[in-house]
Amino acid sequence: MKERTFKVDIKGHHALCEMNFFRMEKLMPGYRNGISHWAYQFGGKQHAQKLPASVDIKIIDRAPYTTTVEILQNNKNSTFGDTLPQQAKLIVRLYNDVKMAEIICWNSHRNWLPSYRYPNKQMYHPDEKLELNRFLGDWLAFCRKQGFISFNNCEQVLVYGK
Fold first, then answer.
1. What is the pTM for the complete model shown?
2. Which of 67, 132, 143, 146 is paired with 17 by a 20 to 30 Å CA distance?
3. 98 Cα distance to chain centroid
4. Percent of the residues in the chain that have a pLDDT greater than 70, as a whole number
């Protein structure tokens, strides 16, 4: 039986990483001006008292061409009011010169190969790295659509003549 080989779509992967960069920028207003922490809450304003989840985005390293960002999602059990143990932690590297972003660590997993034989010891998908960056894109789009930023992170708007 002939074994199928998986081919990496480099153009598609780069396009996805470029979109993730712009999605990250939208969630990090003022990061180029020195702001290094953002806090979001999810559940909509009608469920604000329950706060089913919150997300903290924090810059953990700045370099001339890269920025490393830690994203923590805290899930809250609204029934019991305590934090659930399943806390998602992503480390994302922003490549400022080429305007790309990709996951470099997810909880304790890191350093993925472009492709894997399947099945493998870790049970990674054949295109695990691409799938993680797709997840990041979907998750960032969700954050942008459903989250609302804390007042401290909003820019002040001045209205003249009113």
1. 0.74
2. 146
3. 18
4. 66
